[in-house]
Structures are given as structure tokens and as C-alpha cells.
Specification:
2 domains; two-stranded antiparallel sheet; 10 helices; globular
């Protein structure tokens, strides 16, 4: 079993369940611009790339003008901070896996397409003891761009070959592999295990939850 010096954890769907707040803020933002609010399921299935990508996908699916995504997201970013903790909870075994790898001398970071301020606040609220939180701004580099992963590696001071990315989507897989980082996935977000396995052929494995991933990737029993 390979030994790693650092793990880059995705946030939404991997470490945290923040979907209720995302749905609430996005629904209000759609309605502000005369577009029917998306269902919770639509939001759940499209979160991952960025809120801008999520908005574009939902707008396009209903034949609406994708150009509305920009003002929708600008409004979303204004109102999200006031409700970001609504329904917030850690994903199963999230606190345990972070604590376990830290106790073994590894570095752990949150590596997310979420806005930096929101990511910082959510990580603090949930009490994760991380070495870094690496988020984005509306138009900054993000997953799956290799530059975003390379930035995270630089912040942690580790090489690509000594790190592993942990996430729940193809975006997480591509972000890791594009920068030469190993990838391990959990089927705790919108994608099923068979879907992830088919689209992410070079990942270390697709696991049902973080406890299974901890055992399979790090040799840790939670």
C-alpha cells in the first residue's frame, strides 16, 4: 500500500453536506430573474464544477438562456453567506478520516470549487482540523484545471506523487489526474459507483463511503 504525505479532500459531497443551503440560495436567485426554481434533485445532481456551471446546466436543461447564469450567480453569492449553515452537516466518517490521517503525520486540505469565504466558514463551522482550505473566486482557476491542483500542492509543500485527491465526482478525478496526483473516490455525491468507475478508469477505487476509502487507500480502520 502506497504511503502518502498529503490528502486533498473535496468539500461538497465528500466532507460536507451543504446541499440544502445551496438549493435554497439558488432557488431564490433563479426566481429573482423570472426563472422557475430548480428542484433539490436538480441541484444535487449538478453541483461540483462551480455554482456558475451548475446554473448553466440547469438553465440549459429547461431551455432557458444560459446568459442568465452570470446574474443568477452574482445574486447567489450575495445571499448564500446568510444561509450557508442551513442544514449543514458533515458527511459520514468525514471528521474521523481527517483526524486519523492527521494523527499519522499526513497533511490534509480541503480542495474545493466553492468560494473561498464560504469554504473557510463551513470548514470552521464543522470543526475540521485541516492544514489548508483552498477555494475559488467566481472566475478563478478551479477543478479540473491542473493549475488549481498545482496551487494546492504548492500551499501544502508536497509533490504530486506524494499526494492523493479524495472526492465524489469526475471533476475531482480529473483535477487530480491532470496534475499527476492519485485519485480515490466515494459514491456519496450525485454520481453512482458504477458511473464513477466507468468515467474514472485510473482512480485507485470507488468506495461507498469514507470509512471504506480510509481502509482501502490508507489502511486505516475508522
Amino acid at each position: 500500500m502506497k504511503t502518502y504525505k498529503a490528502a486533498l479532500f473535496d468539500l461538497d459531497g465528500t466532507l460536507a453536506d451543504n446541499y440544502a443551503a445551496i438549493h435554497s440560495a439558488l432557488s431564490e436567485s433563479f426566481l429573482k430573474y423570472g426563472v422557475p426554481a430548480p428542484t433539490y434533485d436538480e441541484v444535487f445532481k449538478t453541483v461540483g464544477g462551480s455554482i456558475l456551471i451548475t446554473a448553466r446546466k440547469i438553465l440549459a436543461a429547461h431551455g432557458n438562456d444560459e446568459a442568465l447564469a452570470q446574474p443568477v450567480c452574482e445574486h447567489y453569492l450575495k445571499i448564500f453567506p446568510d444561509r450557508m449553515f442551513d442544514g449543514l452537516r458533515p458527511m459520514p466518517f468525514a471528521r474521523e478520516i481527517v483526524a486519523a490521517i492527521k494523527s499519522r503525520g499526513m497533511k490534509a486540505a480541503c480542495f474545493t470549487n466553492k468560494q473561498q469565504e464560504g469554504a473557510d466558514a463551513i470548514v470552521e463551522k464543522l470543526g475540521f482540523e485541516l492544514d489548508a482550505v483552498i477555494g475559488t473566486s467566481l472566475h478563478s482557476p478551479r477543478k479540473p484545471e491542473p493549475a488549481f491542483t498545482e496551487r494546492a500542492l504548492g500551499i501544502l509543500g508536497v509533490s504530486a506523487g506524494s499526494a492523493v485527491g479524495v472526492g465524489d465526482s469526475e471533476y475531482d478525478y480529473l483535477a487530480a489526474r491532470g496534475a499527476g496526483v492519485d485519485s480515490a473516490l466515494v459514491a456519496t455525491g450525485a454520481d453512482s459507483a458504477p458511473s464513477l468507475s466507468g468515467r474514472c478508469p485510473e482512480c485507485l477505487g470507488v468506495y461507498e463511503n469514507l470509512a471504506d476509502l480510509a481502509a482501502g487507500v490508507f489502511g486505516i480502520a475508522l
